[in-house]
Structures are given as structure tokens and as C-alpha cells.
Amino acid sequence: MRINPRLTDKVVRGGLTFQALFTVGILVLIVAVIFVKGFPYVTAEFIFSYPQDMGRLGGIFPSVVGTVFLGLLSIAFATPLGVGTAIYLTEYTKESSLTRIIRFGVESLAGIPSIIYGLFGFIFFVIKLKLGWSLLSGTLTVSIMVLPTIIRTSEEAIKSVPKNLRMVSFSLAATKWETVTRVILPSAAPGILTGIMLSIGRAVSETAAVIFTMGSSLRLPTSIMDSGRTMAVHFYILAREGISMEKAYATAVILVCSILIINIAAYYLMHKMIARYS
Amino acid sequence: MRFPYRLPVLALMSALLFCCGSSQSSLTDEKSTVTIAGSTSIMPFSEKLAEHFKIDKPRIVVDVQGGGSSAGIQACLNRTVDIGMSSRDLKGDELVLRQTLICHDGIALVVHPRNPTKDISAEKIRDIYSGRITNWKALGWIDRNIDCVTREEGSGTRGAFEELVMGESSIHDSIMVQDSNGSVKEVVATDPYAIGYLSLGVVDAKVRALSVGGVEPTTRNILAKRYRIVRPFLYLTFGEPSKNAKLFIDFVLSKEGQRILKKEGLIPINE
Amino acid sequence: MNRKLIDKERVIKLILLVFALSSLLFLFTIFAFILTEGLPLFYEAGVKAIVFGMRWAPTKAAFGIFPMIISSFMVTFGALVVGAPLALACATYLSEYAGKRTKLFLKPSLELLAGIPSVVYGFLGVVYIVPIIREHLGGAGFSILSTSLVLAIMILPTITSISFDSLMSVPPAYREGSLAMGATKWQTIRRVVLPAARSGILASFILGMGRAIGETMAVIMVAGNALKIPTSLLDPLRTLTSNIALELAYATGDHRRALFSTGVVLLVIIMSLNLVANFWVKARVAK
Fold first, then answer.
1. Which domains are delineated in chain A?
2. B268 with B203: CB under 8 angstroms?
3. ipTM of the complex
4. Most exposed: A37, A57, B199, C264, by fewest CB within 10 Å?
């Protein structure tokens, strides 16, 4: 007996809708729980004061600073390398064994789990290069971690720039580099920014790699050689040790909010640029 | 339209400026940071001492890191920290380090407050941790599996526990592992059927410490040598401590330092 | 073009080449260090003793990680079984049924949710999932079940987002053509759109799997970290990743080297998975 395909259609539609709502629902629930439990404890004082008694009292200012610096510095290192690689792979070479090897390298880097980065960063930056537990060790490690993401998204973005734009540019006697910087990159900027945004998010929420390279000192990091905590690390320690559930939730709120703000800012930028160039 | 270089260049420049900023332990001015690393059992107490020390000597920054007793010993041997913290006795090559006993700490067996068990024999502890007893029935409670928790390999607390309680028996591999006193406490505090061991100084109202063989884990019993599951908290230095490190150690050994430790549930050395 | 321009172009190309090679350099360095630290123990203790050894007691010269290998696979498989179908369904709905406004709202929301730190998932798992399992299903709560569930939720945004992108990049012409020939929407999706987006969807599964098997912090929080091979869904377990993270800070000497050996095994597994997956995906796309 053949089932009426129109009926199947309706059933499937209902099933898919339900599953979609379920998926989104779970994720929204997670954010909601964090906010409901943590928001009451998020005060200006909390953000700007220092932790006392291992974090049981006081605020999280050092970890806020640590997080911001780690995020910005990692992007500062990774973006030029990443976008440069993407430009090279798409604009400056044809597909060859070299490009295949490079792509393989990038894919492999992307597949390495964060604990291996932590392991590597620990033995290489912290111990062998004697950088100790520091922002520098953490930054270098995290930069390598987010590099594949930036390369991938930048490549996608650059590839999706229509070919005729390049043709037009060349026909106007622009050099390759001029074409890249004045035509292709601005056009690909939204996609590239998305990659950067995703990477900042990853850097900020990464724990395993950060804890073994940046350490977990409660002090305010004032230089790149200082150890410190990111909010993610602080949250992890607070939560696991049961030091303070309220502060843990509050830290989580700020952490999730920061990621939210970064994302929204990036989307805003992206739409602005799309509007400008389309 | 040129590619917006301004933002990334700005970011890079501020990054560079940041790199040139002076470190807390810059080599140009006098060393005013004391770095302490090692046992995570001792860490919270060192932090507390550091907080009080800061009131006395605000110019000296005491930077406390974790890493574990073994890591602290290593760091001390490698001269990468001023003071290493160890919650177990030194062995073999480690003995070149200078040890300063700052206090003693008992290891308590803890259960959930709702667990009616109040006392346990050393033998029963061994049986539970070696996997021979797996049900609370055997201890006079309900018919339910024991959710047993231990610390991880390499932990000073576990080492002390294995040495003082387990003896020849080894901890069974079906037993759950947590990697700090705090997380062991958290598990026991939230699971009515759990049992774990942790630093006595960490015990609070969230868990109940069992008496072992009729002896309660109190300061008095430890001093009277009746409660024997006790280990030393050591500060280690490579030879003579640096000037600021010595100031801190002296503070810890002073009346006030010991008073702080006693308040936290540790056993001061003078009594 | 005059000489100066050509030279400038050459220099730029060279610089960019160096940038591109940096990825290979990093990869090489990482592998070099992990291998230099991790391989010696394989020579000393024997590959069999480590990879198939059943007992992990590194301070007493027992370096068996077989239980952890099995556990890692179990929770990853569990996470995919629960998470992948759900995520794909969500992505399909979003791409094929949802209106423009819904898409505009939900896609960024999903991307945001992908940014939630793993430790948050782990924490909520401990606070909510573990006690529920303990009270209603038994065991300590820290189990394969709890870990798989937490991991499944974690990989939902990843798989959904990338599958969605893949589905959206299927040209509308495909759908229109199918519908024009009288197929229903579901028939179109099932026989035209999904197959067309196959490589991207598979890629999303692989990425999800990679995230699950490489996840450390959340797993430490909900898995219980016991060393034995779990015999039931409710037994606690330890994954390769947790093993490294739990003991790295404390380990010295042979113990530390054993952790690097664990890292080597983990790398081998993940790299093999990536290779197989890429090969498979490419083979299908070539069809």
C-alpha cells in the first residue's frame, strides 16, 4: 500500500518542526537557567572588584581582564596568518600538491582536540620555552587553535566573491595585490569577520588549553608574562570545587553575555558591510 | 574602498604595547613577588595567608598557583618558584630541598549529611576502596551501591591516604576520581550515597566527617595521636629562601599565621 | 607592468606563502613535541602494554589505557546517536520550512549557542542531569548516559549550523526542478536536497564527532572518571582526554610521559577518523 505522499509530507513537517523546536528549546533553556540563577548576583561591583577567599567572596575583575586580553591577543596573532593563508590558497596559486598539503595541514590542526593543545602548550611554551604559565603561553596556544577556523571561513568568504569582480579589476589594470585588498577582501569582509567572531568566542570559552598554559592565578594580569584566569577557567574552578554556586552562575552570565555581545556586534558589522557593498 | 586596516592594526599595536608592559616580577626593580606553587590541598590556605600577609606588607605580592605536590616539588627543584608546597613527605632526590613544616592536616572520610553512618573502621575503609564492599548494606544502611570517590594518581592527598589507610591494598579501578579536595567535597555533598576522603581543613557543614575506629577527626585527637590519618603541610625552598619569601614563611610560622591556619581547621605546629 | 610592480607582487606572494606554510609548521611542531614526549614509553613498556593494557597506575609502572579508549568511543557514539539526527532535523526544518524571518532570527541564535563554553554544559550536566539519573535510574549519576547526553547537547549547534549552511547552499533550481516534476516537499528534500548537501552534512557530523571525542572539561565533570571499562550505561567512565587533564598538572617523569603517550593514542585515533571521514566524503562527492 502506498502511503499518500501528501500525508507523509504533513507528518514529516510536524516531526521536523517539533525536533527543531526541541533543539532550540534545549539550548535556550540552558541560557535561561544560567541567567535566572546568575543574574541577581551580577553587579557592577562583581565585575570590577577582586576575588577574596578563593573566589567565595568579592568579584571577578582579574578574570575579566584576562579573558579580554587573551581574546584580543589571540585574534591579533591569528588573523594576519589566517587571512594571509586564505588569500594565498585562493588567489595566488592553482591547486597543486603544495596547496593540498597545506590544506591537509590546516584540516589536521582543526581536528586536534583542545587538551592536546593544552598538553603541547604546557610542554612547549610553559616549560621548554620557559615562558611559564602566562598570557603569552596562553595566547600563542589559542592562536594556533583558532587559526584553522579563520583560514576556513576566510577561504569560503573569498571564494564566494564573484569572479567577474576580479576580471573587472584586472581589466582596469590593477595588480593582483591591489585587487585583493581593494576588491576581494572588502567584499569578503563579512565572511571573514564571522570567522574572527567565531574564533574570539572559542578563545574566550576555551578551558582545557588555557588552564595548562595560562595557569589559574587569581592575580590581575598586568603584563603578557603574568599568569591569570579567564572567566571560563574561573567558572570551572568555582563550579567544580563548589566554592560558590552564586558566583559561578554570575560568572557564567557574564561569560555568555560577552559572547553574545561579540556575536551581535559582529552581525551588526556584517550587515553594515553587506549593505555597503551589495 | 580600501580594506579596513585600521582595526587590526590598532589591535596589533595595543598588543605590542601590552607586551612591553612591565611584568609583576620584572627584573629591573627589586623582586617583590613571591611565587608559591604545588599542592592543591595547601593552595587555599596559602591564599588565605597571602591575603592577610598583604595587609601587613602591601608591597609584596604573593602569587599562589596549584599544580599538585609533585609539580610543586619539581618547580622548586628547577628554581622556577620561590616556595614549593607539598602535602606529602619528600622522598629520594627530593630531600635536597629545604623543608619547613607549616602545619599538619588530617585526612577525613566524609559522607553526605543525610547518611546515618557515623563511624567506620579502617578495615572497612580499605574494603570499600579496594572494591570488596560495594553496598551500604554492609555498613548497616540501605541496600544501595556505595558511590565511592578518590583523588587522582599523583595527588599528595591520595598518596597520604594510600600510605596511611590502604597500606598494601590498592584502590580499585571502578572507583570514581575527582581532581581536587573541593570537587570531592562537592560530589559527596550532593550525592547521598557517596563516600570520599579529603583534607580535614576543607570539611564544612556540607559533609559529615566520619570517626575512624571510634576516633573523631578533631584537632585534639590528632594532637593526642589518637587520630592517625595525618600528613604534613610543607613549604619547600631550594636552599635559603629569598628575602621576601623568608618574610612570608616567617609570617606563616608566626603566632598570627598559625592562628589563621588553626581557624581553617588545620593543626598548628606549636601545640 | 613595470619591473617594480612585478617584484612587489613576488615579494607579497612569498610572504603569503610563508603565512600559509605556518600552519604546516605549527602542525609539525605540535606533532614533534607530542611524539618526542610520548613515543619513548612505547619503546620501553611496549605498545601492547599501553594500548591494550587494562590497568592504569602510572606511578606503579602500569600504563594500560584500553578502558579509556573504549570509553571515549562509547560516549562519542552515544553523543552522535542522540545528537546528530536531532540536529539534522533542526537544520532541515530551518532551511526548508522556516520562513525568512525565522531563519534570520534562529541562525544567529544557533551560532551564539555554539559559543557557550563547554564548562557551562558540564556544570549544568552535574547540577541537573547527574542527580536525575541517580535518583531515577540508579548508579552514581556520573555515567555514560550523562556524558553522552551532555556531549550530544554540546554538538547540536555545530551540526545544525553547518548542515543548515550546506542545505542552504543547494541551489533553489534543484528544488524548483523537483517540485516542477510533481514531487512533494518532503520527496524533494529526501531525494534531491539532502543528497545534494550530503558532503556538508557529513562534514558537520565529523566535526561534531571531533568535538565530542576531544571534549575534556565537560566530560571530567559528568563522567565520574573511574578507570574500569563501563559495563552499563550507568557506570562511570574515564575518557582519554579526561585522563590527560586530570593528571597532567600533578605528573612527573614516567607518569607525565605516560600522559603524552595517551595523547599520542588520542591523536592517532582522531587523525585516523579525520582521514577516513575526509576520504569517505570526497569519494561520495566525486560520485
1. 41-276 (1.10.3720.10)
2. no
3. 0.83
4. A57
